[in-house]
Amino acid sequence: MSQLSAPHVQPIPLRNLAWWALAVPVLLLVAYLVTFDQGAISQAGDYLHELMHDGRHLLGVPCH
Amino acid sequence: MIRTLFVRGLLAGIIAGLAAGAFAFLFGEPHIDSAIALEEAAAHTHTEAPLVSRGGQVGGLFLATALYGAALGGLFGLAFALVRGRTGPRSGTALSVALAAAGFVGVVLVPFVKYPANPPAVGDPATIGSRTSLYLVLVLIGLLAVAAAAVAYRLFEVNGGPVRWLAAGLGFLVPVGAAWGLLPTVSEVPEGFPADLLWNFRVSSLGTQVVLWGVLGVSYAFLWYRAERVAGVPQAVPV
To answer: Which sequence ranges are marked TM in the entry (chain A) (predicted)?
Structure first.
């Protein structure tokens, strides 16, 4: 089996990945707005909560 | 290179989110409708106009799962870039599926066992803050436990098969078991709420997440494989 596997893969250096770490908070913010926001960060009141309501229930996050 | 991995993550995430939305629409929405009907029957007075109509909420379901899938897919692509060549299967397609399985267990299954999804009408609005915190704590513990299992699997490399798997299993189960046992129980199902509706809703919710993570892992593997071939990376050759 090992003879058929691909040649050893060089990992991507961490310093190249460091810039991309900046995307992580942005992605987490999007996930937060979809799953948990009740107006505290979006300033949209309950609008996001109501719009994403069914998605929140079915994705399994605590909704209300 | 990283950009390729990241953009394909976003794309696979949107595909997975739409697939999960379709599953949720077909198998979850009927239970939400039933639960809302019970909620309204219990409240009697329901005069205020809703902020978003039921039709809008059903459309919002697809928006929610697609956006959530995109965010998840982006994180998945970056995790793939971080992990590849460091740990896990050497084949990129196998790594993609393994990462999705690990993510599902850590982010979905670990919290679900202790704090399962609830339909409308279940749950006390006064405790939403503490329930959300507890849920997120379990997501974090789930992710750390999956990472601990991977580290334990590597640490016992010299011991070979069974010992490695035992170490990985303990690395996962000890923190998760402790968290399940020690974190407070939430029991807020209203008196008389139909048990079959609650069960069916929870199964459909878990199914939605299975579709989300399953399609994410498989479609990312497919997109990665295609990108790799286009880039002309030499394929594995038997020697």
So the answer is: 17-34
